[in-house]
Design a protein that fits this description.
This protein has 898 residues and is an alpha+beta fold. Among the domains are: 60-166, Beta-Lactamase, CATH 3.30.450.20; 274-382, 2-Layer Sandwich (Beta-Lactamase), CATH 3.30.450.20; 401-504, Beta-Lactamase (2-Layer Sandwich); 596-752, Histidine kinase-like ATPase, C-terminal domain (Heat Shock Protein 90), CATH 3.30.565; 758-894, Response regulator (Rossmann fold), CATH 3.40.50.2300. Helix content is 45%, strand content 22%. It is built from 25 helices and 28 strands. The strands form six sheets. Strands 1, 2, 3, 4, 5 and 6 form a six-stranded antiparallel sheet that branches. Strands 8-7-11-10-9 form a five-stranded antiparallel sheet, sandwiched between helices. Strands 13-12-16-15-14 form a five-stranded antiparallel sheet, sandwiched between helices.
Length: 898
C-alpha cells in the first residue's frame, strides 16, 4: 500500500565530507558523524510516531499471519472481514475468514509464498449480512531478521459500492447509493490531502537537517585546526627521539652482525658435519648448498653440483612426481618424502632416502628458495622389507596352522589369535582379544595349566601333558587338548610375549581308543574264529550221525520226531557258529545260489517265536534265486527281526515283502544296474527320530540303553560285501521300514535248485571220491554220506597223503573223480597247498574245499585257488551231494588259479 512505502525523514542521508587525504578532514568527520547519528536517531523516533498516527487513522485494516496461516497480529478493524466461528477458540485464518473470502485468500498467500513478492487480488466479492461488497486484498511477505521466519501481511481495501439484497423502497436504495458515492469521493480527497501534507513535512525536515549539519561542520573545523597544531608539536618531539634511537640501533646492528658471522660459521660446521645430506636451492631450483654427506650418498662432488638445476642432477625427480613437491615448497609448504630410490654413480649402488623439504624465507617473509635434509634409509628399508617378509611368513604360518595360536603380552592379556583359535573355542576373536587374560582365567587354573604358563614367562619352552576340558563355560566341553607354550624374546633375551599353541587331539584320542577296541576285538575274534572252527567240526560229527540215524529209521518211527528236533537245534548251533565267524573276521561272503523266501521265513519265524509280534509274509511265487552267503544273510535278517521285536515291546506285526526287481543305472544310489530280489521289512514299532537316521548304520551307535551298536553296522557291511544295499525310512510312533536289494544268482533265473543224490549221477557206482580231513569223525560221516549214495570213497588225514593217493590212483588208471579237501590241517599240509600239487599231477582234477571257517578268503574265492566247489562245515547229506554233483559238472575252463 502506498502509505507503507513512505518513511518520513528516512530517505535523506546524513551529510558526508568529500573524500580527502587531509588529516584535518578526517578529524572533522570523526567529530561530526557521532552528532549526526544522534540527531538522525531523534528524527527517526519522531518519524515513527508520525507513521503510527497516520497508520492508525488512514491505513486499511489487516492481519499478520505466519507460514501456517496462524494469525499473529491484528491491524485496524478487521471484524468486517474476519469473524470467528462457533466452537473452540482459534486464530487460524481458515477459521476466522468468511467462506466467500477464504479461497481467494488461500490462492493469494500461496502465490506470495512461491513468488516471494507482494500479490494483489482485486474486486473480490464478499457479503456481510445482506450487503454484497467487493474488496481488494494485498499479500505482503515480511522476513523476520532474527530467525529468518517469513510472515505475510494481509490488507483489506473496499473499492466498490455496497449492494443490499433485501426488498425495500427503490428510492431509498438510490439514495443510499448516492451517499456511498459521495463518501467515496470524500475519502479520495482526504487521501490526496494526506499525501500533500506528508510531502511538506518531509521537505521541511530536509531543510532543518541541512542547516544543522552545516553548523556542525563549521564548529568541527575550528577544533580540527587546533588539533593539527598540537600534532605538529608532537611530531617534532618524535623526530628528536628517533635520532637518538637510530644511534642506539646502529650500535646494536654492529653487535648483531658479529653474532650473525659466528652463527653462519656454526651453521656451516653443522651442515658439513651432519651425517644426513643437506642441500639448498633457490627459486630457480639451482643448488646453493651441497654438504659432504651429499657427496658420499650420491657420489657427486660439491663443485659439480653448485648452481646446477636439481632436475638436471636428479632426473628421477620428474619421473616419480617430486617436482610437484618441490614446487609446493616454493609456495610455502613443507613436505616429507619416504623410501625414494637413489643411485650412487661413484660406487654404482642403489639405495633409498627420506627427504624433508622446507621453504627458506628472507627478512621480509619472502620465499627465496628451499632446504632439503636427505637421510640415507637404505639399511632401514631393507630391514623393514625383511621384517615385513618375516611377518608375512609368520602370519601365513600362523593362520594356516591347524593348531590354535594364542599370543599374550607380559600381563597375560590376549593380543592375537589365528582362525584355528576361533574354530577350536567357538568364539569370536574380536570379543576375546584384549579382554581374555590367561593369568586370571578360572578354567586355566582348574586344568592346572597356570604353572606351565608361568614357566613360559620365565623363559622356558613348555610341553603341557594332554588334558581334557570337562567344564569350560560352553567352550568345547569334553575335548582333549595338547598344548605347547613358547616364550618370545627380544635381542637381549628378555621375554616380551608368550605363544600358546593348542591342538584338539580328541579325534586322535578316539582313534587310539577305537584302535584299542579293534585290537581287543581282533583278539576276541581270533579266539571266536578258532572256537567256531573247532565247534563246526564237532557239529559236523553230531549233525552227520543224526542224519545217518534218521535215514536208517522208518519214517513212522517214534524217534524220528526227536531226531528232527535235534537237527533243528543243530541248525541253531550252526547259525551261532556262523555269527561267531562273522564277528571274528567279517570276511568276504561265500556265495551260493539260495532260495531266499525259505531262508528269510525260517529266520523270522524262529526269532519271533515266543513273542507277541506276528509275522506277515507277502512273497512272489516266481521269486528269483539269489547269490549270497547263506549264513551271513541269515545274520542280516536275524538282526532286523530282533530290532523290530524290541521296537514293538507291546506286540504288533512284522511285515515282510519279497519280489523281483530290475534296477536301472543310477536309479538307486550305490547300486549297480541289474536284477535283484527286493525285500521290505516293516514294523509297527516306536520308530527312529530323523536326526538319528544317518547314524544307525555306524558302528557303536545305538539308541537302546543296553545296545552295543553292532547289529545294523554288521548288517550294512554284509549287504555291501554282497553287492547289494539296504536303506531305511522311519518316523517316531509310526515304525521303521528297511528295504534290501539282494543280487540274483548268475545261473539261469528260471532254473530250479533241487537236491541231487548219488544215484542220480550217471555211473555213480563207479565214481571215486577222495576225502581229506584231519578229523577222523568227519572222514567217517562224509564217507557214509557218499557211500550211501553209491560213491566209492577213500579217506586220508592230511594233504601229503592226499597227493600220494591221487598220484597212485592216476598211475593205476583208476583216478578220483572228486577230491573233498579240508582247508586247514593243523600240523600238516592243508588244502590251499595240496590243491596246487594235485593240479600239477592232473590239470583236470576237481577239488572241493571244505572248512569250518567259512569266512576264509579261499572259501569266498575258491576258483582263484584251483578249487571247483566249497562245502562249508557243518554240511548236510543233501548239501554235500549237491556240491559233488556241481563238481562233476564243473568245466575246468572256469578255474582261474590265483
Amino acid at each position: 500500500h502506498n502509505i507503507f512505502a513512505k518513511r518520513v525523514l528516512s530517505h535523506k542521508q546524513p551529510y558526508r565530507f568529500p573524500v580527502s587525504s587531509s588529516v584535518f578532514n578526517q578529524r572533522i568527520r570523526n567529530q561530526i558523524e557521532p552528532v549526526d547519528r544522534a540527531k538522525h536517531a531523534e528524527a527517526g523516533d519522531l518519524t515513527r510516531k508520525i507513521e503510527q498516527l497516520l497508520l492508525a487513522r488512514y491505513a486499511p485494516p489487516g492481519v499478520l499471519v505466519d507460514a501456517n496461516m496462524q494469525i499473529r497480529q491484528f491491524h485496524g478493524r478487521t471484524s468486517r472481514y474476519l469473524d470467528p466461528t462457533t466452537g473452540e477458540a482459534s486464530l487460524k485464518l481458515s477459521r476466522m475468514a468468511g467462506h466467500s473470502l477464504m479461497p481467494d485468500l488461500y490462492v493469494a498467500i500461496e502465490e506470495a509464498k512461491r513468488e516471494r513478492k507482494t500479490v494483489r487480488k482485486r474486486n473480490i466479492p464478499f457479503s456481510v449480512g445482506r450487503e454484497q461488497n467487493a474488496i481488494d486484498i494485498s499479500i505482503l511477505p515480511v522476513q523476520n531478521d532474527g530467525d529468518n521466519e517469513t510472515f505475510f501481511l494481509l490488507l483489506f481495501e473496499e473499492e466498490k459500492e455496497t449492494k443490499t439484497v433485501a426488498a425495500g423502497d427503490g428510492d431509498e436504495k438510490n439514495g443510499d447509493s448516492q451517499r456511498d458515492k459521495e463518501l467515496l469521493e470524500l475519502r479520495r480527497d482526504l487521501m490526496s490531502t494526506k499525501e500533500y501534507l506528508q510531502t511538506i513535512i518531509e521537505e521541511k525536515d530536509e531543510v532543518n537537517q541541512e542547516l544543522w549539519t552545516a553548523n556542525e561542520e563549521v564548529q568541527s573545523t575550528n577544533e580540527e585546526l587546533q588539533s593539527v597544531n598540537e600534532e605538529l608539536e608532537a611530531a617534532k618531539e618524535e623526530l628528536e627521539s628517533s635520532n637518538e634511537e637510530l644511534i642506539a640501533l646502529n650500535e646494536e646492528l654492529h653487535l648483531k652482525n658479529t653474532e650473525l658471522t659466528e652463527a653462519n660459521a656454526l651453521n656451516e660446521c653443522t651442515i658439513n658435519c651432519s651425517m644426513d645430506g643437506i642441500l639448498s636451492f633457490d627459486n630457480g631450483f639451482r643448488v646453493k648448498i651441497w654438504n659432504p654427506a651429499m657427496e658420499r650418498m650420491w657420489g657427486m662432488r660439491r663443485e659439480m653440483c653448485l648452481d646446477r638445476s636439481l632436475f638436471e642432477l636428479f632426473p628421477f625427480l620428474v619421473e616419480n612426481g617430486q617436482k610437484e613437491v618441490l614446487l609446493s615448497v616454493l609456495n610455502g609448504d613443507g613436505a616429507i618424502v619416504e623410501n625414494q630410490p637413489y643411485y650412487n654413480r661413484e660406487r654404482g649402488i642403489q639405495g633409498f632416502f627420506e627427504g624433508r623439504y622446507s621453504p627458506l624465507w628472507d627478512h621480509n617473509d619472502g620465499i627465496i628458495g628451499g632446504l632439503a635434509v636427505i637421510h640415507d634409509s637404505t639399511e632401514r628399508k631393507w630391514a623393514e622389507e625383511r621384517l615385513l617378509e618375516s611377518e608375512a611368513r609368520f602370519k601365513m604360518v600362523m593362520q594356516q596352522s591347524p593348531a590354535a595360536i594364542e599370543i599374550y603380552d607380559l600381563d597375560g592379556l590376549l593380543i592375537g589369535v589365528n582362525r584355528a583359535y576361533e574354530e577350536l573355542w567357538r568364539v569370536d576373536a574380536a570379543t576375546m582379544v584384549n579382554s581374555f587374560n590367561i593369568l586370571r582365567d578360572g578354567e586355566v587354573d582348574r586344568v592346572r595349566l597356570l604353572p606351565y604358563v608361568q614357566r613360559a614367562y620365565a623363559g622356558e619352552t613348555v610341553l603341557v601333558p594332554e588334558y581334557r576340558i570337562s567344564s569350560a563355560g560352553g567352550r568345547r566341553e569334553g575335548r582333549w587338548l595338547s598344548t605347547r607354550i613358547y616364550p618370545l624374546k627380544d635381542s637381549g633375551g628378555k621375554v616380551k610375549n608368550i605363544v600358546v599353541a593348542v591342538e584338539d587331539v580328541t579325534a586322535r584320542k578316539r582313534m587310539e581308543e577305537d584302535l584299542l577296541k579293534i585290537q581287543k576285538l581282533e583278539s576276541i575274534g581270533t579266539l571266536a574264529g578258532g572256537i567256531a572252527h573247532d565247534f563246526n567240526n564237532i557239529l559236523m560229527g553230531l549233525f552227520g550221525n543224526l542224519t545217518l540215524v534218521k535215514n536208517e529209521l522208518p519214517a513212522d518211527h517214534p524217534a524220528v520226531e526227536h531226531l528232527i528236533d535235534a537237527q533243528k537245534s543243530m541248525n541253531r548251533a550252526t547259525r551261532l557258529t556262523q555269527q561267531l565267524l562273522i564277528f571274528a573276521k567279517g570276511g568276504n561272503p561265500v556265495r551260493e545260489g539260495v532260495s531266499i523266501e525259505t531262508l528269510v521265513e525260517e529266520v523270522v519265524r524262529f526269532d519271533l517265536s515266543g513273542s507277541s509280534v506276528k509275522p506277515v509274509f507277502d512273497i512272489d511265487h516266481d521269486l528269483w534265486l539269489v547269490e549270497v552267503d547263506k549264513g551271513q544273510i541269515q545274520q542280516v535278517f536275524s538282526n532286523l527281526t530282533i530290532n523290530a521285536k524290541q521296537a514293538m515291546a507291546d506286540g504288533g506285526h512284522l511285515y515282510v515283502t519279497m519280489k523281483n526287481a530290475t534296477v536301472a543305472e543310477g536309479e538307486i544310489a550305490d547300486l549297480a544296474a541289474g536284477n535283484y530280489v527286493k525285500v521290505i521289512v516293516r514294523d509297527e514299532g516306536e520308530g527312529i527320530e530323523e536326526k538319528f537316521l544317518s547314524l544307525i548304520f555306524d558302528p557303536y551307535f545305538t539308541t537302546k540303553r543296553l545296545g552295543r551298536g553292532l547289529g545294523l553296522a554288521t548288517t550294512y557291511s554284509i549287504m555291501k560285501k554282497h553287492g547289494g544295499c539296504i536303506t531305511v525310512e522311519s518316523a517316531p510312533a509310526v515304525g521303521s521300514t528297511f528295504t534290501l536289494y539282494l543280487p540274483v544268482t548268475r545261473m539261469d533265473l528260471q532254473q530250479s535248485w533241487t537236491t541231487i543224490t548219488g544215484e542220480e549221477v550217471d555211473g555213480a557206482g563207479k565214481v571215486r571220491v577222495l576225502v581229506v580231513d584231519d578229523e577222523e569223525m568227519i572222514c567217517k560221516v562224509t564217507s557214509r554220506f557218499l557211500t550211501g549214495a553209491g560213491f566209492i570213497v577213500n579217506t586220508v588225514l592230511d594233504g601229503k597223503e592226499a597227493i600220494e593217493s591221487y598220484r597212485q590212483a592216476l598211475e593205476e588208471g583208476n583216478p578220483f573223480a572228486v577230491v573233498i579237501m579240508d582247508l586247514t590241517i593243523p600240523g600238516g599240509m592243508g588244502g590251499k597247498e595240496a590243491v596246487k600239487k594235485i593240479l600239477e599231477l592232473d590239470a583236470n582234477a576237481k577239488v572241493i574245499v571244505s572248512s569250518g571257517y567259512a569266512e576264509d578268503p579261499v572259501m569266498a574265492n575258491y576258483s582263484e585257488y584251483g578249487f571247483c566247489g566249497i562245502a562249508a562245515k557243518p554240511y548236510s547229506r543233501d548239501k554235500l551231494l549237491s556240491v559233488v554233483r556241481q563238481a562233476l559238472l564243473w568245466e575246468t575252463d572256469n578255474r582261474q588259479i590265483h
